Batch of 4 targets.
Target 1
Amino acid sequence: MAIPVILDCDPGHDDALAILLAVAHPAIDLRAVATVAGNQTVQKTALNARRMLGLAGAAGVPVAAGCDRPLVAPLEIGDYVHGESGLDGPAFGEPDVPLDPRHGVELIHDTLAAAEEPVTIVAIGPLTNIATLLRRHPGDRERIREIVIMGGSTERGNHTPYAEFNVYADPEAAAEVLGSGVPTTWVGLNVSHQALVTSDVLERISALGTPLARICVELLTFFGSSYHRAWGFPAPPLHDPITVAYLIDPAVLTRVRVGLRIELDGAHTRGATVADLHGRMDWEPNAEVGTVLDKDRFWDLMIGAIDVLGRG
């Protein structure tokens, strides 16, 4: 049976590839896509989600724009990585996927209410929509099987020295989701930095020879130039699709159950995720945290998805 999934995202180049993987693989039943302000404004992230669903041939998946700012802090966007559109690189036309008139949080709520079984939420942007959902509709906790999150790190950060962007963008929301009682699995930078888009990966995608493969190469080439400029990476890490790959094949991701906290007050560490990997703090384990990625399994899934969708 396919896993019913709601994707909450902020496309973003890596979000775009996560959408393709979620649509392509038969193990995933993608029920809805909500977007949030993060890599770009919520209007642009919703447009980008519509673009990618159109390219994937999934025009029937509803897309709605959600929260346009964090719960507390001012909005910071990741345009220094993702560009003015949020998906700079290829030239996109107008999408043929409509924008659902509901607020993204209500789309998530309605999708959960209509499901006959608990639904997995894959959250690969700031967690504002999910925290807002649990505030507005606390009964929805029982309708969520798990929240799989691209966020945080057991090591260093990227947006700041110790904070990964998605958590930094709304740490109060991240802390509320972590403390909600809904099971969470966290895929942090320590994992996604193992999924580098090397020249070999780009060559494998390019060799597929389809228009979709060409667009993916253009997206990843722009993304790589941004990463090199900002952090000096020779190849960019493809963060977000790991969450979907884990649902398809849990063996992709080695995980440990630990006590996890979100830093809200540190002058230099706000937004950091603090994982008690060695049990030094006597915290009750409250989250699954990824540690090791099976790179071969991951890239086979990701490139296979581009191949399947590109061949129509």
Target 2
Amino acid sequence: MNLVIQSPAPLAAAHVKPLVALARGAGSTSIDDFAIRIEGADPAQRGDLEVYCGTHALDYAFVEPGKTLSDFGLVAMDMDSTLITIECIDEIADFCGLKAEVAAITEASMRGEIKDFNESLTRRVALLKGLDASALERVYDERLQLSPGAEAMLAGAKAAGLRTLLVSGGFTFFTEKLKARLNLDFTNANTLEIVDGKLTGNVLGEIVNADVKARTLRETCAKLGIAPTQAIVMGDGSNDLKMMDEGGLSVAFRAKPVVRAAASVAFNYVGLDGLLRLF
């Protein structure tokens, strides 16, 4: 396999020799100042590489030789803590003084400690009852930031002919704004009920849980006439696992341990544009 090593800062030359040796590779090629490719690497050395890369804040990924980004047809992304840096529901809850309580439920849910996502979401949204809907706008304007490398990753994916899907257990208020801002092709998320300018504490319609995320991925691939294995899927929480399992390449981004363990690739240090260096 090819082994791609990436660093969030320029990659120190001193790392090259030990990494080639650890990977039992045939040699290395510079991709850019931040990354190298080691040819002929042995995936059985993953454990030693995990320790070395973790110690030196590097990301590594085994990639099939000859694989290109244009072999894929779709990049599907989770929103909260993946495409963007925040958990929107936690920030909304901050406006009614309940951020710590809601964030604790969010964290437990994303780590896979709360098995029923529907119940977890319903509990959290109920705590928002009575909040002025203008809080959503404030979260978007004042707190929502794109994850590092997001725009470069999307530009690279589009240039290679891939379509884009944003599928979220969060809310349509934010996915629709991001769809327009980033020119995304498809979105699916939950709808907060708003009556007389205030949140009712209810979610309208079907909740976008792990099963719905996976189904959305399959349906989007069917619309595009591609197999789910031609999708790259990016996520961070346990409700992304089923969707990630459907794709041909899964990327755990700043992810919970259960997700890092299951994904093809984990980006713990580099930005989302690390995807482009893999190919």
Target 3
Amino acid sequence: MINSHTKLRYQRLPAQQSIRVFEAAARHLNFTLAAEELAMTQSGISKQIKALESFLNTSLFIRKGQKIYLTDMGRLFYDRCVEALDCLQHAVDEIQGQTGQLRLQAPPTFACRWLIPRMEQLHNSLPKLSLHIETTWLRSIHDHIQAETNQLVIHACINYPFNNLHAELLREESLFVMVSPSYMARHGDIDCAKDLVGKTLIHTRVDGHIHWEAWAKAMGEEALDTSKGYEFETLDMALSAAENGLGVLVCDLLFALNALRNGRLVIPFKMPIVTGLRYLLLRHLNSSYQPLQQNYRQWLQQQIHQDNQDMTAYLTELGFDNQDQRKGI
């Protein structure tokens, strides 16, 4: 049971409408402007103020000709009314999911290459949302995730076998081999999977060489030694290495789409899509932050849906007509 600060249970409070009228009149120091804001008549404003002054047994305004001023008690009451109305508005916004701080844990590449470029768009869509982003640098695909009630967690994994959090599928990776034109200019064209043998492979360190291993297995390319090559802490670093011509990378199309469109990377030959890791959105079901989380989840889903359309359009431009020939990780 929630304890009230008063035993009278708010029985001596004035009507809410009179509070709204007083706040507007005190803010404008003008009954006419207050009436226009609240869609009331000026006489209606005056009646509400008089009733409030009678209830409080004190004068709230000093009237001098055409101008009005707050009395000392009026100033005190105005300050308290603003605090109370702001608190109520904040509570309503939180319940309706329009405002508040939301903590988001996300893989560093997702934060750097996907979320940050969309922050202004997010602000325009949800202007009252305060998003605190935490990157999970050392998280592996097998981790048991812990989260606070005001946290959403974007977790990349093969599957999430634990039941401590609700898991919602956001998307699955679409893996392709990618390389810079400068690397092929120095080391020869790559026209098929066999041409990768002897090439420098690029990996991310936290999850080992899982993407190259999965891709080689899906292609049946047993001669490809996926144990060798450069290792980097994050996919973002691995992508930068590939863009700078250090080697060949297997990467999710989502994070490389801009680099592919501007020619820093290319997909060197046609290949089936290999489905990689799953990106899950993890959260507590019983949370007072559900409305706030729901608004952000809807925004995420809309953005990812648009991304899927963009990626499909790009693959169609390249002549990939076998998108249904997907091979799992």
Target 4
Amino acid sequence: MSDHIAACQFEPAIGDIDANLESIRALGSDLRTDVAFAVFPELCVTGYDLETVPDLAASVPGPITDSLTEIAGSIQSLLAVGLPERDGDNLYNTTVVVSGDGVEAAYRKQYPWGAEAEVFSSGEGPTTVETPVGTVGLCCCYDLNFPEVGLEYAQLGCDVLTVNAAWRTSYLSDWRLLSRARARDGPFYVVASNHIGDQHGRSHAGHSLVAGPDGRIRSEGDTKNGVVSAPVTASDLEQAHEQNPVRATRSSDQD
């Protein structure tokens, strides 16, 4: 493995799906040619506004994922993108993984935060997808606070954990700490994408990042539109598992 993973950040326009898709396309066009998997923020297709997302939620697959599929095909990279999903009477805060061939996976946020629980139903468990950078596990924003989420993905043999978020500026230190901690817990890479700017009175922190399986930040953004990336290598993962053999210890404890 030597492909790159990337975290992309921008300020979505609330309620303007077309404009947000164009922002995703523009950032995708800025990716390095060796980026195999790129992550975009939570609910970035609609903007983070709990009052408007029920009217904008769509089926998966559906028209929004059809547009994302076209974008993924044009840049030849897998994309993980946050959107509101409607499934019957239920709404979910969902991360879809799309390739040029369509939807490869869909993860429903397990732990809605605050008022989200009044809008969204909870997802039922972990979701993984096989990619050129290895086995990737998906989580969303507040899920990052739960070590058991990362541990489940470690037990599933993940090489990378994605996080897409609408993380506030006031909790920036937590964002960096928890991303690093989950990477160390794995051990695996963490690629974490966050909103920037102000939406509906929420100031978002940006600072999208990639943390290595040793828990060190390999690449980090600021508070502007942009992309950060880092390579995923088998040697880094092997070294992390040797120096921090928690997976092997857990396995032996369960035998």
